[in-house]
Amino acid sequence: MLFIYGGLFFALFIRIFSIQATGEVNGQQLEARAAALYEREAVLTAERGKILDRNGNIIAEDTLSYRLIAVVNPKATENPEDPRHVEDPQKTAEVLAKYIQMDEADIYKQLTKKIQGENGELKQPYQVEFGTAGRSISHEIKTAIEKEKLPGIVFTSDTKRYYPNGPFASHLIGFALKEQQEDNTFQTIGKMGLELFYNDELTGKNGSMQYKSDVFGYLLPNSEKMVQPAQNGSDIQLTVDKTVQNFLEESMTEVYDEYNPESMVAIVANPKTGEILAMTQRPTFDPENRIGLEDWMNAATQKIMEPGSTMKTFTLAAAIETGHWHPNVKYPSGSYTLLDRTIRDHNYVGWGKITYLEGFQRSSNTAMANILEEMGNDTFIDYLKKFGFGEVTGIDLPGEVTGKLKTDWPIDYVTTTYGQGSTVTPIQLIQAMTAIANDGQMMQPYVIDKIIDSEGNIVKESKPVVKGNPVTKETAQQVRDVLASTVTSEAGTAKRFAIEGYEVAGKTGTAYIANSDGSGQYLTGHQNDYLYSFLGMAPANDPQLIMYVSVKQPKLEGLETGSEPVSKVFTSVMENSLKYLNIDPTDVADVELKPIENYVGQDVTKVANNLTNAGLKPILVGEGGKIVDQYPKGNMQLTIGSHVFLKTEGKITIPDFNNWSLRNLLVYKTLSGLEIEIVGEGYVESQSVSANTVVNNSSPIVVKLKTPEETFIPPKETETEETVFVQD
């Protein structure tokens, strides 16, 4: 026995000595086995970048949501009276099917599935998940499921893409969804619009955390953590203005509900820079749940149409520029014949012999045909190309199409003068109109203001781009004058587009719609079967905004005309936007201007007194002393009554915000650094902290603004009946 036990002890000693010397067992490193047993790695999820409007308001961002998990292994339950696992898979599946987008049978299959163990045998997993259906659970759904008191059903924090504004420039912004990757992780992927086009910039890079834990997952004492931080995606700041976009969305929805058209498109832009301030279409959808999503194309850039008489704007510009515009010369209206083809005016018989100016005001097709005859086909097409038709604008959006200038037959040139045959996109019309509004300088449209990485660095910043100068300043001014007369003249077709206090310039359009059967024929026979539109700007003498609106096949009744639904969108959005942007009406345009300079480093008391004496309103941000910053910056002229913000050091005294615009409030918030919560839009109605109160940086301040409906009352519709404009 002594010999046997001695031999066993010696063999054990040799084995232990061998393990200590080599660190291996059966060819496997013990250190690696221990590391595999105790080391853990957790993924630190990166946030997807935000999409913001021009003022920093959230359009799309990641927000807190929940992931649904079912614990199915009975070992999780220590006390049978308090089960911690799914006891009844059938009942659990039946209840969960009410709350998540997954069939009851599929839920049951997931709850009862087996997995293969190390030895090849099938065993029950500890927990299961439910793929995409079990992710991005809202707080409301989570609460409802918890009230069902289902054993084994737990939640863990997650993120989801959140669109707080509902249907808001939806075809521009697009949407993103979480998708399962090959490594079984989930990642938010852009599926449409800017979310898709800038997916790489918006997508962050996940980090990781490595640590040691016991078999229950608890962190071991004195163990070191190795953290690789997540790198969040870049934020994209747009040129879109949330307030202007909301004006447009509300008006478009009202008209869409009232007239039930086939489709609608609208764009608002700054002609000085090419910045798109608002863009939308109908039908639209809610990116939060994709309800209403049928058409995935952005109609402003990815769809072509025959523009109708809005194209006469650029025919007129070419004629003026080449010396072929004779406004007071008379021509015979009614019909014009070229070879075997005859075109007619929209009232078919015309108005007798009238001047070309009256012909343009009445939207006469034959006036354009006679102008073309004098100007020449090649010259006309050359100018349309200078205005950017027939090629992409280069806007920073995906899938832009070009349209086509149709020149196959002699009659094609004629019909193109009044917007039939040739095709364009709405964004091309906007770009071309910037040349008319901007004294001949045509600006490239764009929607991305800047892209900012997770460190706050600007990695891309857009600047205005001049695409060309198709006409001179004098020609552009003359075109604006003629366009304004279509609104003010008794013979004008655009009388409905007048706005009280502002002079509007623009051109109506009514275009045939090609039959969808591919026959090459047009829909005819009813006033509902046309594309009605308006391309306009205001104020006419120095346009600050341009806008395009089209309504396809509205359901008109009785004596209603196609300009009615179009004008309801244009007039309300244009008026509200001009007032929101503090753009002076025409009747107060000749105001006295006061110069300001760079006041940084000067004494604020002296500067404030001088500004007050000049009729300006100095706003002090700080305690007093030397000026360290100001807005607007120096060396410019302001109208009397304008605010001038002067920043100094020291404590801040809150001013009276009453009737301040949102823009001035945002300037004050930026200069002061105060935590000001802005509620609503329009003009300030109330503030939570009284004027003349001294505050510090941590003091919360809530400022409420009046809604657009409370602030602005759209002008009443005129009772003038218009002749329906039908192109030929």
TrEMBL record:
**Record localization:** Membrane
Q: One Pfam family of this protein, by short name? A: Transpeptidase
Gene Ontology biological process terms, A to Z:
cell wall organization
Q: Name one GO molecular function term.
A: penicillin binding
Keyword Oxidoreductase applies = no
Describe the location of the PASTA domain by residue ranges: 590-650
Query: Which terms in the GO cellular component ontology are assigned?
Result: plasma membrane
Q: Which UniProt keywords apply?
A: Membrane
Q: Which Gene3D superfamilies match?
A: 2.20.70.70, 3.30.70.2110, DD-peptidase/beta-lactamase superfamily, Penicillin-binding protein 2a (Domain 2)
Q: Which InterPro entries match?
A: Beta-lactam/transpept (IPR050515), Beta-lactam/transpept-like (IPR012338), PASTA_dom (IPR005543), PBP_dimer (IPR005311), PBP_dimer_sf (IPR036138), PCN-bd_Tpept (IPR001460)
Cited SUPFAM superfamilies: beta-lactamase/transpeptidase-like, Penicillin binding protein dimerisation domain, Penicillin-binding protein 2x (pbp-2x), c-terminal domain
Q: Does the keyword Membrane apply?
A: yes
- PROSITE patterns given for it? PASTA (PS51178)
Family membership noted in the UniProt record: Belongs to the transpeptidase family.
Q: What's this protein's name?
A: Penicillin-binding protein
- What organism is the protein native to? Ureibacillus massiliensis 4400831 = CIP 108448 = CCUG 49529
